Amino acid sequence: MKPPLPHLHAVTDERVARRPDLESVATALAQGGGADLAFHARGRTLSGLEHFQLAHRLNHPPARLFVNDRLDVALTVPAAGVQLGAGSLSPADARGMGREWWIGCSVHDAGEAKAARLAGADYLVAGPVFQTASHPDETRAPLGLGQLSDIVTIGLPVIAIGGITADRVREVRATGAYGVAAIRALWDATDPAATAAMMAGACTA
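^ that's the sequence the OP posted. Answer follows.
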């Protein structure tokens, strides 16, 4: 039986993936979040080798490692889960590659959430909930808490992403969302360990 899905997800992008201090910050985040923290090895323009190296650099137990999109990379590292985008394999196909993985899908509205559930996803990453500095060219309007609540009613654990800060965790959780994911709020924190501990605690309070 696989361990529970983490409530706090620290997601990388290309900028974070190429930071020279990545491993030291990851170590601090893992100290703060513990087993309730998942690192997501993610970077849409990373080469296969870069994605592979990133996944290895994010392997910091007791935090758990998730790999976004690159299932070939997930097969080579101790991945606890994968997150699938619109161009990825289906959840059913992914499950055939890693039966112990948590398999999630990125969704942007209730319709996509329903489709992901029917396709066999274990959890959803829904966003952007708020305006986000990580994707200034994002053309989708933020979901807001109302649409996030609609996605929660689909019945799968929902991880909210997009503009998530430590101060917003409790209001996001009030919608029924299972947890939160962030890039800047965690990787750019002045005290990563304390921030991860605070956000993980707010997710389960």
